[in-house]
Structure formats: structure tokens, C-alpha cells
Amino acid sequence: MANLENHIAWRYLFSKKGHNAINIVSGISAAAVMVVTAAMVCVLSVMNGFGVLVEHMFSEFDPALMVVPAEGTTLRTDTAPVVSLYAREDIEAVSMQLEQTALIRYKDHQLPARVMGVDSLFEQTAHIDSIITDGFYSVWDGAFERAVLGRGLAAQIGINAHFTGALHLYAPRRTERINLLRPDLSLLHEHAFIAGTFAVNQIDYDDQLILVSLPLAQRLFEYDEHTASALRIQPREGVKISYLQSQIAKALGPGYRVLDRYEQQADFFRILKIEKLLTVLLLVFILLIALFNSIGSLSMLIIDKREDIRILSDLGADEPTIRRIFLTEGWLISTLGTIGGLVIGVLLCLGQQYFGWLKLGSGAEYIISAYPVQVQAVDIVLVALIVLTLGFVAAWYPTRKMKIA
What we know:
This protein is α+β, with helices and mostly antiparallel strands and 405 residues long. It is built from 13 helices and twelve strands.
């Protein structure tokens, strides 16, 4: 019986109707579903592309794993759990960093900045050389303290890698009260010579961060050599990040948090997910509007086939069977539109990925020249489920209201 219902529904879909308007509305319905489906695939793929692009930019600087204190801003590196990390065979490098806010000054320009002190293993946990835009990476050359600034921060303070003057850093004394009569005596002062600038193409890094040696940061912020704000961890090649993360968290205990790259930038990726969700909801709303055409065309078809309904009823077809025939046809309209939209959407995305049809622009202000896209199977399945489910509801509504007798 199911095969008979499908056969009749299929014949109704493509056979000539009593009124040509029904054919036109049915075609428009399928086309509308196809266009919206293709748009959903393209938009989600572009958002995936931007997400992967930003993730790649963060990965140039952020470590694979980072250990931070569960409470407070600093941790001790001479405790037994932390020392045990250095002996693990699945870890290639453990680098210390100490980051706090300080005032930086170059000649008459001054502004607050995030000063990050890093040790000699920093280069093993970040691809710093790949993001240097001017000069070179060095925080200690054996004789002088060096500094590497974010490109935006260097522009704001009026300095570049070729300047020979010293960059001055100031931080309030942490262990003493401020002397109101001589506030200048309440500041610790260090200086470094600029070695280069870097660009992650993220404001939090490029416009606010300055890299210095770990000993300089420890002196500036009045901490000893065993104090850091975080540990940067680089796993050995082939080690699964999630497994190592859980093992380190278990070894360190509840006093520490072990963050992967997504958790290090949790706010950013949370916003990206919210934007993706809102985009899907907007496109679903547009799809609902498009599906009103399906409701209209199916309602018109039911009216057009009243004589056929009577004949089927006389031949012994019961009411549920007749309803399923028209329900199947309405769903076929959505299914054909969904399949066509998925194919067109994927082809457009692959074309954009390989040929870069839609350009962002050219010049130094653009990281890439064309819109990035990445087609993900989970998005294809999600779009198909949404469209087919709503298409089924749009077909069910008029068939539920139809009168058989």
C-alpha cells in the first residue's frame, strides 16, 4: 500500500494539473526551498571558514594547552605537581609566562599595556617567528633586555624595530604602600630595547601585548623566579590533546585549570557560536515564509483532485491512505528542493574554496583576499533535518484539514 501511495503522489507531482497555476506555485515552492537551503549551506560554511581562520591565527600564539591557577592570578612552579610536568614523556616543552598590566613609555608617548614575560622555551610553544612583521624575535640577547611589541601597540607609542632608544616600563610596587609625597618612588622601573613587532590580527594581542624576558617581568612585578601566571604546554607529536589535558588536570588537582585553545579564547568562540545560531534561526524564519507556498500549492492540489479523491474512496481507499498520498506529495516538494539546495550550496562553497569567486579585497589591511569557506558534514545534516522537518509540517497541515467526503 505504501508503494501505491508513493506512486500516486509522484504522479500527482509531475502530472498536468487542472489549473496551470498549481504547477507554477508548486515549482515556486520547490525553488524557494532550494534557494533557502543553498543559502543556509553557504552561510554556515562561510562562518565555519572564518572560525577556522581565526582559530589558526590564535594557534600561532596560543599554546596547545595552558595551565592557570583555579583562584588568583599566579601559581608556584616549584611545587611537586608542577615539577612532575617536566618529567612527562608526552610533553615536549613546559614554558613559564608572567603577565600583568604596566605602563610603558617611549620618549613623550606613554600608555598602559599587558606585559608578558616569557622564558627561553616560549618559542617551542608558539609559532612566534611566523607572526613577526618587523625586526626579529628576541627578549634577551645576552647583554641587553629586548622587547617584542604587538604591531598596533608599537604604532600607538610611535616606535618600530629599527629604533635604538630604550622602552621604559613602570609598575606600582606590590609589597609597599604608595608614597603620596613621592609617588614616583612607589613605581618599579625597567627598560628594554625593541627587537621586533608581531601581528596575530586580533586587537587583544596586537594593540595591547608586549613580550619581555621572564626575569624582567618578575623584577618589574616583584615576584621570585618560581612564580608565574601560567604554564604553556606543548605536547609531543602524535599525543592526543584531549587525553593529555585530562591527564594533566588529574595530576595537578583542583587548584589548577588546564585549558585547550578553545577554552583559552572561550569568550570569542562562544560569541561565534551565538552568531551562528542566530544566523540559522534567521534563515529558518525565511524558510518558514517560503514553505507557505508549499501549503498553498498543496491546498490548491487537494481542491483540484476532489474527483480523484472520490474515485479512490469508492475503490476502497480509506481516509488515512488518501491523506498520506497528499502528505507524501507535499513532502516530495520539500525533499526535491532540499536535495537541489544541498547540491547547489555545496558546489558553490567548493567553487569559492578553490577559485575564490567572492573577494574581500586586496592590500595589507586584508588577511585573506577571498571569503573563506569550510563545508562540514554536520552542517549539511543539520540543514537537511531542519528543511525536511519543516517541510513535513508544512505538508501535514493542509492534509489534516482536508475533507474526504
